[in-house]
């Protein structure tokens, strides 16, 4: 396994269809661009139509002839998630890559239209519902993969079932850590269920290290935005580098299901992608199974019966 893997090593993606959530900027934009550069037909699933169109045009300029589609998706809305999945399923024969990339980081406490704490509702529950609605049309596709983005911040996370929605004392960063731990646990639990079902689909996870994107400044208070703008300049790697773990997770040949990919540098903050280790908390199968049940109940979007927990 090369520790210096780059996007130039992405295998031919012609004939494959990919969805990238949050493809209007940052890691999602780079991920969509590089998949398109290597031949994939890419759906840019974006909340903001204007920014999504700008992203599409930027990819077209970088990759003449790119096969692109822009589609509305607001992961903080279960209705939007359902509508997107229905539109996609009716217009496409199937799906090869689902890149669960979009997310929010450390905003003041807000609720989604469904009443969920915003970070849990967007980062986990929106992607949980989207994956549940699309997983069936991925079945049977060669090397079909679900790639879910987590974060180094998952290491500070804890799943608090007594206050999953952070209703009793909200900490922006604690809620973010919980949501990214939940993302990683979801990816690992999905892999266990896919294996048990004998599925042709695999579930893998990735994190970008510390990458300079607008995620750090999109919703944070003013003082945090100033600090993170400085650390972006001093410490962060580019969005192009930060997207490499996602691209590796999506395309590296014969990558084992349940893998977690991150940068190879000190502390996993920077570097080229390789397989890294989830935290001990992320590997807790009992908590992951309980979180899965909670997620199905909260979203009212069950996965296919074949992916019910065994044992």
Q: Describe the largest sheet.
A: 8 strands, mixed
Give the termini separation: 34 Å
CATH superfamily: NAD(P)-binding Rossmann-like Domain
How much of the sequence lies in strands comes to 5-15%
H-E string: EHEHEHEHEHEHHHHEEH
The level-1 CATH class: Alpha Beta
Name the helicity range. Answer: 40-55%
- Summed up, the helix count is 10
Q: Give the overall shape.
A: globular
> How many domains in all?
1
Instruction: Kindly state the number of beta strands.
Output: 8
- Quick check: average pLDDT? 93
Radius of gyration using CA atoms only = 18 Å
Unreliable runs: none
Structural class: alpha/beta
Q: What is the second-level CATH architecture?
A: 3-Layer(aba) Sandwich
For the biggest β-sheet, the strand order reads 3-2-1-4-5-6-7-8
Describe the structure concisely:
By secondary structure, the chain is α/β, with parallel strands linked by helices. 42% of the residues lie in helices and 12% in strands.
Describe the fold and architecture:
This protein has one domain: Rossmann fold. Helix 4 runs parallel beside helix 5. With 311 residues, it is of the alpha/beta class. It is 42% helix and 12% strand. The mean pLDDT is 93. It has an eight-stranded mixed sheet with strand order 3-2-1-4-5-6-7-8, sandwiched between helices.
List keywords for this structure.
alpha/beta; globular; Rossmann fold; 311 residues; 10 helices; 8 strands; eight-stranded mixed sheet; 12% strand; 42% helix
Q: What's the arrangement of secondary structure elements?
A:
Elements: E1 17-21, H1 26-37, E2 41-46, H2 49-62, E3 67-72, H3 78-91, E4 97-100, H4 118-138, E5 145-149, H5 172-196, E6 202-206, H6 215-218, H7 222-234, H8 239-242, H9 244-251, E7 260-263, E8 273-275, H10 285-299
Parallel strand pairs: 1-2, 1-4, 2-3, 4-5, 5-6, 6-7
Antiparallel strand pairs: 7-8
């Amino acid at each position: 396994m090369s520790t210096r893997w780059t996007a130039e090593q992405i295998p031919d993606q012609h004939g494959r269809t990919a969805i990238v959530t949050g493809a209007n900027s940052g890691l999602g934009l780079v991920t969509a661009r590089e998949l398109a550069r290597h031949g994939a037909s890419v759906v840019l699933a974006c909340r903001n139509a204007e920014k999504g169109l700008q992203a599409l045009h930027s990819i077209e300029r970088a990759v003449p002839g790119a096969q692109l589609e822009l589609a509305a998706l607001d992961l903080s809305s279960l209705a939007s998630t359902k509508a997107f999945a229905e539109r996609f399923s009716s217009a496409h024969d199937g799906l090869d890559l689902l890149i669960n990339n979009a997310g929010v980081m450390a905003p003041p406490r807000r609720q989604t239209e469904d009443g969920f704490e915003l970070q849990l509702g967007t980062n986990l529950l929106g992607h949980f519902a989207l994956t549940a609605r699309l997983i069936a049309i991925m079945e049977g596709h060669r090397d079909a993969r679900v790639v879910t983005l987590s974060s180094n911040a998952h290491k500070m996370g804890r799943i608090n079932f007594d206050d999953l929605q952070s209703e009793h004392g909200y900490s922006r960063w604690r809620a973010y850590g919980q949501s990214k731990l939940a993302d990683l646990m979801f990816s690992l639990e999905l892999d266990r269920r896919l294996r048990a079902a004998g599925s042709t689909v695999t579930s893998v996870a990735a994190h970008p290290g510390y990458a300079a994107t607008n995620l750090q400044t999109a919703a944070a208070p003013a003082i945090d935005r100033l600090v993170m703008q400085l650390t972006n300049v001093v410490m962060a790697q580019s969005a192009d580098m930060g997207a490499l773990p996602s691209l590796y997770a999506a395309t590296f040949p014969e990558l084992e299901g349940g893998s977690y990919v991150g940068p190879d540098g000190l502390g996993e903050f920077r570097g080229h992608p390789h397989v890294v280790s989830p935290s001990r908390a992320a590997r807790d199968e009992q908590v992951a199974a309980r979180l899965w049940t909670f997620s199905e109940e909260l979203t009212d979007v069950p996965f296919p019966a074949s992916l019910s927990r065994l044992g």
